[in-house]
Amino acid sequence: xxxxxxxxxxxxxxxxxxxxxxxxxxxxxxxxxxxxxxxxxxxxxxxxxxxxxxxxxxxxxxxxxxxxxxxxxxxxxxxxxxxxxxxxxxxxxxxxxxxxxxxxxxxxxxxxxxxxxxxxxxxxxxxxxxxxxxxxxxxxxxxxxxxxxxxxxxxxxxxxxxxxxxxxxxxxxxxxxxxxxxxxxxxxxxxxxxxxxxxxxxxxxxxxxxxxxxxxxxxxxxxxxxxxxxxxxxxxxxxxxxxxxxxxxxxxxxxxxxxxxxxxxxxxxxxxxxxxxxxxxxxxxxxxxxxxxxxxxxxxxxxxxxxxxxxxxxxxxxxxxxxxxxxxxxxxxxxxxxxxxxxxxxxxxxxxxxxxxxxxxxxxxxxxxxxxxxxxxxxxxxxxxxxxxxxxxxxxxxxxxxxxxxxxxx
Length: 410
What we know:
Elements: H1 7-14, H2 30-35, E1 42-46, E2 49-52, H3 53-78, H4 103-127, H5 134-151, H6 154-164, H7 168-188, E3 207-215, H8 227-245, H9 250-261, E4 274-276, H10 283-291, E5 297-302, E6 306-312, H11 315-321, H12 323-338, E7 344-346, H13 348-351, H14 355-373
């Protein structure tokens, strides 16, 4: 799953954090000032795995920021979601969103799902004896060093951490889930592991199919062809299908006919067909492909693009050769397990938390801290760009999170 988040939050997740206060010190920090919750206090448990307030509130801020940026972008570019903004252009966190819940309630539920998902990674890793390696720890330390260098000084780095309200301990915990997840994927691919997924089971996540496309529209302009041209395409599709139905070696002839006749513009990059999951192809093509058995061909399938003749191919055989695709599907399988049921216990102290009210207060406090800590223009090699705004670098890249495991915790 993709997301748009503020570069400030992304920096913390992709970078690293410095040490927080010692346990003997009184509670403090930006989250404590807003909520009165001790950052170290347990506010949620996932199958007994305890979650401190600072980690929980981080994810609330993260998901609110993601929604703010994402919805704001769509509203600015396409004029959609206007009903979610007030007369001043700010998000109305009490507005209805996706049914009967408010936008704030949705953000809170997404934050809690993220907490649950990452806790499940930790729980599964512990259950299967998976731990961080020395190489993992070195990589994490290297990322922290890179960000300190990027920010220009330890002081600037610490200021950024204070703005986030999250300790190094909590950061390391979040960051480590990336590496734990990768090691768990290794187990899905390991025949000796209890998590191993046999090749024949990958079909629950994807299909492998080739097709002959005879387009009924101009694939450059996407304008419809005239009736005479469409009729000619239909007649040709029927002719090709008849040849295939009478062939002794269907797969060999299909390859020959597809190479010679298919008008799919992606064929050069995918000469043997596509591996795809649900929702990745046009519906008519997808439904027909999933209904076939390996080695079977479809009838003539009509979609918005034209007429298709589809050959379902052997996914297991494909994955034996395409290890990258197999790992991608293994990740999907692991994600499906991690999204499963968990016993979650919530503290009464967060049951009444209003995510929208919290995020508005947090944003104002973070902006004030940033302004107070901002270096003079040009100091420490900065260019004056505001690191708290999305895509401050202007490169159009969408930030990603450590522990982002195929877009699952979104």
